[in-house]
Amino acid sequence: MQTWTSMADIQPNVTKMLMNSIKKDRISHAYLFQGSRGTGKMEMSLLFAKSFFCAYRDGVEPCHSCKDCNRIESGNHPDVHVIQPEGQSIKKEQILHLQKEFTYTGLESNQKVYIVEDAETMTVNASNRLLKFLEEPSRQTVAMLLTENGQSLLDTIRSRCQVMAFQPLNPHQFTQKLIDEGIPESSARLMSAITNNLEEAIELSNDEWFAKARKLVIQLIEVLQDKPSEAFMFIHNHWMTHFKDRDSLNMGLELLMLWYKDLVYEHVGHESSIVFIKERERLQASSYKWSKQHARDALTHILEAKRKLFSNVHPTLVMEQLLLQIQR
């Protein structure tokens, strides 16, 4: 259960604007919540719906315990409708059904809230149908369109919505959110450094391919540090057999970058920023062998390798050149 106070910690700007609109009774007929997945768009929508319906709210804060609040929380409120993609898209028939609902009087009041999740997946026909509602707003009806890509919506839809930009969660907030989801802190730190997408982070944390990728990065560091003459053999026999295409190799390079960033943090004493917290002994050993400048140079070389990778340089050649640069 989210409150306006807890949402202010996650999305302070959006929270302030929505709270002000409720306080001043200047609620828009349509909002566009845009931002990456996991930034609180659905949580904000449901909280806003509670404040819209709750008869016992304190200022802007709903009571969270009345019949309306409980049914919104459980997804069973008769006048709060959530539209989600059927398959890969939101179809015209779904919006037609929604339009039909518009014609009915609310079951318990004249207020209605409609939440369109993944609005960017609407087909052209569905978008045009939804536009009909947005062109004929009712003061007692609020629409909230949730999207990761607001630019993919029709300009005519965007122009009729109050746009709310949801910012990516900062790494510490995201790490804590992952820990709350049951992910160990060591994995949560790593995931928050790779993605700001909650679903993707949870999926990666349970992915055997990713777990092996993580091990391969540590093994490569061990080879570079302890057996540098075997580095090229390791790349050909182990690294390239796992990172088989450009996208997967890019992930390997991302993980390698995080290691060298951690090495910089180890040198400067920023322990709280270290991602590979289970590898502190290895990091400390690396800091004795490699200088802070070496780590910074390695980061520059990895960035250049990523650029070459997506400039269609052969992946194996990219890694061979990177090893030569790191070992200089």
Q: How would you portray this structure in words?
A:
This protein is of the alpha/beta class. It has 2 domains: 4-168, Rossmann fold (3-Layer(aba) Sandwich); 207-327, Up-down Bundle (Zinc Finger, Delta Prime, domain 3). The chain is 58% helix and 8% strand. It is built from 16 helices and 5 strands. The protein has helices spanning 4-10, 12-23, 41-53, 67-74, 92-102, 124-135, 155-158, 171-180, 185-194, 198-205, 208-226, 231-242, 246-268, 280-289, 292-309, 315-327, and strands at residues 30-34, 80-83, 112-116, 141-147, 162-165. A 5-stranded parallel β-sheet has the order 2-3-4-1-5, sandwiched between helices. Strand 2 (80-83), helix 5 (92-102) and strand 3 (112-116) form a beta-alpha-beta unit. The chain is elongated. The relative contact order is 0.09. GO terms for molecular function: 3'-5' exonuclease activity; DNA-directed DNA polymerase activity. It comes from Pontibacillus marinus BH030004 = DSM 16465. Its EC number is 2.7.7.7. Pfam families: DNA_pol3_delta2.
